[in-house]
Specification:
alpha+beta; four-stranded mixed beta sheet; 7 helices; 4 strands
């Protein structure tokens, strides 16, 4: 089964939902704002994809951090993970988990590969 993680009211998530539907891929949706993401899952994603791929440094939540918090997040994975758990908007979206695949962000070509498997 495919699970897509993110925030419901996000334009990138809308693209991802539409793409999965157009490919005929059934999925479960995990809303960061309504459900708590556990630390082990986030650590697993960081290990597989890398912190630079998981941590959203382009959003408002990141920009609202102090310079000290930003520096700590860049230097210490545990600090960054704790921030992402406390402020889920700091996790890039969408995150799609399907079988052995982990997709981070919306890339149409990568999504099309989900239908091939």
């Amino acid at each position: 089964m495919t699970t897509i993680y993110g925030i419901k009211n996000c334009s990138t998530m809308k693209k991802a939902f539409d793409k999965l539907t157009s490919l005929g891929i059934e999925y479960d949706f995990f809303d960061y704002k309504k459900q708590a993401l556990d630390k082990a899952t986030l650590e697993h994603w960081v290990k597989r994809a890398g912190m630079d791929k998981i941590l959203n440094t382009k959003g408002t939540t990141w920009r609202n951090l102090t310079e000290e918090e930003k520096a700590q997040a860049k230097q210490h994975a545990n600090f960054a993970i704790a921030l992402m758990i406390a402020k889920p908007s700091m996790i890039k979206r969408p995150v799609v988990v399907s079988d052995e695949q982990l997709l981070v962000g919306f890339n149409e070509a990568e999504f099309e590969q989900l239908a091939v498997k």
